[in-house]
Design brief:
420 residues; alpha/beta; Aspartate Aminotransferase, domain 2; Aspartate Aminotransferase, domain 1; four-stranded antiparallel beta sheet; 16 helices; 44% helix; transferase; amino-acid biosynthesis
């Protein structure tokens, strides 16, 4: 059953309660390998389900537009202080509703419509809000994109520098959603200084790894850092903006009143809880285990004939190119889901297929690591992935159901926060 228990919902809205319980059960019984997902602690669940959701708090601590903030202000101040401590930054804004609005706030603070902005192309592993044409950031600004090399799937910094020198962008974004290798913040910073651009590090995927010391930090290289608070950081669905003091006023003004009204105080409380957890020694162990699991899984997949973008991983994420397996990413992801392995289909660099039916599947190890799995279980996970892909090619649903049963049996020994 769901933990915390849901007696009132069960009584007043049994249809919804049933769906929540079934989703919790699904999360317990499934290898959750979407790289952007995780499990929050019971403490985070409790914080996000409190009466804090009742309170409007437009403005910032000490400067609100509503009364009754005597307890809300200290909660936000606590989250801010913990963010500054965990990441070693001068200023933190914990109000953004999610990652995309956080990135939009950077544009609003530092750029004007029509300004040139630079980011990694979406099909190469970047994010929509780094200037991709279908995003508002591509429609309102003049985007230029850098890529990765065909030969090894790594960022070509000669290309990055050439584009920056030619286009002179106002902002340069580094980071993305499907980058399996270490982000070289220092090299981006050098290029940004050369063209007088502001470097923005989007660490949404790797924030927990950075907090735990398992990935280099952008602090000292990027004056502005954006991040979500879930994914590897293992907090609620929210976001933060971290920056040097030089940019604090412009960033805060862009978030409120520029883009948002009142913050979601229950989410702020959940962020505060997650940041306290991230400051504990055990969190560093967890962050390093995520990377160890991903590397072990990548090695096992390579042994089974999978083609991995860039040949492996340095972080929590692996991008599989299934071209050589004679199946697209979408049917493979659906087959894996039936087999109890939750992933997402994803484009790969220089993909010849359409984005809604691409060649790749993206997987990650944060949620598996939270459940307690280690390198010892990764060969078995790789074997299940391999068997499921083979079964998908053969339309063998019975084989997929067999794998799902094996997955459930394994996971029964690993507790899940939020389910008993």
């Amino acid at each position: 059953m769901h933990v915390p228990a849901l007696p009132t919902i069960t009584s007043s809205d049994p249809d919804l309660a049933d769906l929540i319980q079934r989703e919790a059960s699904r999360q317990h019984d499934t290898l959750r390998m979407i790289a952007s997902e995780n499990y929050v602690s019971q403490a985070v669940l409790e914080a996000t389900g409190t009466v804090l959701t009742n309170k409007y708090s437009e403005g910032y601590p000490g400067k609100r537009y509503y009364e009754g903030q005597r307890f809300i202000d200290p909660i936000e101040e606590l989250a801010i202080a913990r963010a500054k401590s965990v990441f070693g930054v001068e200023h933190a804004n914990v109000q953004p509703y999610s990652g995309s609005p956080a990135n939009l706030a950077v544009y609003m603070a530092l750029a004007a419509p029509g300004d040139t902005v630079m980011g990694m192309a979406l099909p190469m592993g970047g994010h929509l809000t780094h200037g991709w044409p279908v995003s508002a950031t591509g429609a309102w600004f003049r985007p230029v994109q850098y890529t990765v090399r065909r030969s090894d799937g790594l960022i070509d910094f000669d290309e990055v520098r050439d584009i920056a020198l030619r286009e002179r962008p106002k902002l340069i974004f580094c980071g993305g959603t499907a980058l399996p290798r270490t982000i070289e913040f220092a090299r981006f910073a050098e290029i940004a200084r050369e063209v007088d651009a502001v470097l923005v590090a989007d660490i949404a995927h790797i924030a927990g790894l950075i907090a735990g010391g398992a990935h280099p930090t952008p602090v000292g290289h990027a004056p502005i850092i954006t991040t979500t608070t879930h994914k590897t950081l293992r907090g609620p669905r929210g976001a933060m903006l971290l920056c040097t003091s030089d940019y604090s006023k412009a960033i805060d003004k862009a978030v409120f009143p520029g883009l948002q009204g009142g913050p979601h105080n229950h989410t702020t409380a959940g962020i505060a809880v997650a940041l306290r957890e991230a400051a504990q020694p055990s969190f560093s162990v967890y962050a390093h285990q995520i990377v160890a699991n991903a590397r072990a899984l990548a090695s096992s997949l390579l042994e089974r004939g999978f083609d991995l973008v860039s040949g492996g991983t340095d972080n929590h994420l692996i991008l599989l190119d299934l071209t050589g397996k004679n199946i697209g990413g979408k049917p493979a992801a659906r087959a894996l889901d039936r087999a109890g392995i939750e992933t997402n289909y994803n484009t790969v660099p220089y993909d010849t297929r359409k984005p809604f039916d691409p060649s790749g599947v993206r997987i990650g190890t944060p949620a598996l690591t939270t459940r307690g799995l280690t390198e010892a279980q990764m060969p078995q996970v790789a074997d299940w992935i391999s068997r499921a892909v083979d079964a998908a090619v053969k339309d063998d649903d019975q084989a997929l159901d067999t794998i799902a049963a094996e997955v459930r049996e394994l996971l029964s020994a690993y507790p899940m926060p939020g389910w008993h």
